[in-house]
Amino acid sequence: MMDIAVCGAFADEQVARLREGAGDIPVRLMEAESDCDSAIVFGNPEPGKVAANPNLRWLQLESVGFGEYAGLDWKRGHGETLITNLAGFFADPVAESALAGILALYRGIDRLVLLQAGKQWLGDPLRTHLRVLRGARVVLFGYGAINRRLAELLAPFGCAITPITRDGIAGLDKALAEADLVVCTAPATPATSGLFDAVRLANLPPGAIFCNFGRGSILEEDALADALERGRLGGAVIDVTRDEPLPAGHRFWTCPNIILTQHSGGGTTDELDRKIGVFLANLACFRAGTPLEGIVDFSRGY
Amino acid sequence: MMDIAVCGAFADEQVARLREGAGDIPVRLMEAESDCDSAIVFGNPEPGKVAANPNLRWLQLESVGFGEYAGLDWKRGHGETLITNLAGFFADPVAESALAGILALYRGIDRLVLLQAGKQWLGDPLRTHLRVLRGARVVLFGYGAINRRLAELLAPFGCAITPITRDGIAGLDKALAEADLVVCTAPATPATSGLFDAVRLANLPPGAIFCNFGRGSILEEDALADALERGRLGGAVIDVTRDEPLPAGHRFWTCPNIILTQHSGGGTTDELDRKIGVFLANLACFRAGTPLEGIVDFSRGY
């Protein structure tokens, strides 16, 4: 008898919705670190528990990233096992958070918030420090759902946009040399690890803004901290870091002109409800034998 | 002999540019409070000095607002005197500042900046407090250059936009009752004075966001402070206030979820250079006897 294990901080009404959607298939709650022998799992349990599940036929992750699960030998242990992720799910909120951070730097919102906290009126002298995003030259490194959505949001700003895909990394350095703004949303792969190092950041024009909404491993963090402290770069918006939470002594806490969004970029009030919606839609496909959305291709690494 | 008086904090190279652009017409620098008998004036001198200028033929203001000058009896004293303002000049920066403030509230940038100042990592619990702007119902009160530009910037967000012009104020209350976001850019006129009072703000749905980039007189500030402190409204972005600088004891300093942009919305690094460009372009028209840009119509009040 097939059953479904769901792993997450679901409210009662969300469990009820899952049970209603599952119909005659029993739904049980599991902890991330629990043993599990369910054929269908929704959530991100510990990878070891996933690997040890003899009955698993389909794992619906509640994330886009699946690096923790990539080491499991799926082909051998689970010949027919499917893994689906939430590719594209976070495009709207992350693209909006990226634009929010970028516009905050251009229009001084970060500085204004701190002035306000100190009940300090600066007024007119602020004005000459502000820039407009209109017409900026933008490099979008990684061109999946998030940066494609960001390109849509940037369209009315009349920016000159250069998307760089994984096949176009050879053109990255030339593009960076003429960029006012770089937004990384690329996944963590061997090709992107440490890609934005001191040499590559030095290739950006003075005053450029660097944003990372991909993975922390893409960036050499000390190199960015150096460039911000020296004033060579104009600012940074950083959603992802190598260690999260950011360690207490990390230089990013005190760098000038950096906005740390604390890996909140994908968040929305209805995030978990929307994830349940994706799972239930895929469940209907699974039962009908039709293709699921978001099937992970481990060979691509993302 | 006609001459030009320029009033502003011009750098040497800006004065040189003005002189080069003026050709054979002498350019002299004036203080705002100085007597002036020049035929052409660029800048915002004291209104009394403008009224007392017997030779004035054209005043190019360096602002959009001209309320201080509206009381002068132009028709009687200066039958042929033209006044031009910078209508449309600030559309890009103000629309970008408005969107920056709005996205900051939707995506938690204000809160993140304060967390960062305290070196505090909150991370995941932030996510469920964040909203997306996509699909929001937006009322644009005042539909001149700034809100038209904002409507362009909002286009890819798929917002339902209701513009309210001065002829459409009768429809304001109905529109407010269904608005997630209101952005005011209307000028200070008798019709807009105190328009956003407690009754009208109470008409907004719970959690709505109110923005004022028009004039401080449009808003009853205590009513907004009440609504924010009670949590009835979701936030506010306020560029203009009745008193600027904002007085030390003003409630806005400590209201929750308010972003004060300190009348910086129109600012850019090249603001004064661009203003000089507008003046010189109008000067060419003035000398050629062709129509100037931005001629003020006192009968409309803006």
Structural write-up:
2 copies of one chain form a homodimer. Chain A is an alpha/beta fold and 302 residues long. Chain A has 2 domains: 4-88 and 269-288, Rossmann fold; 91-260, Rossmann fold, CATH 3.40.50. Helices cover 32% and strands 14% of the residues of chain A. The first copy, chain A, has 11 helices and 11 strands. Chain A has helices spanning 12-22, 47-51, 67-70, 74-77, 91-107, 109-117, 145-154, 172-176, 198-202, 221-229, 271-288, and strands at 4-7, 27-30, 40-42, 58-60, 82-84, 137-141, 160-164, 181-184, 209-212, 235-238, 258-260. In chain A, strands 7-6-8-9-10-11 form a 6-stranded parallel β-sheet. In chain A, strands 2-1-3-4-5 form a 5-stranded parallel β-sheet, with helices on one face. In chain A, α2 (47-51) links the parallel β3 (40-42) and β4. Chain A is elongated. At the A-B interface, α5 and α6 of A face α5 and α6 of B.
A few lines on this structure:
Chain A has 302 residues and is of the alpha/beta class. Chain A has 11 helices and 11 strands. Chain A has helices at residues 12-22, 47-51, 67-70, 74-77, 91-107, 109-117, 145-154, 172-176, 198-202, 221-229, 271-288; strands at residues 4-7, 27-30, 40-42, 58-60, 82-84, 137-141, 160-164, 181-184, 209-212, 235-238, 258-260.
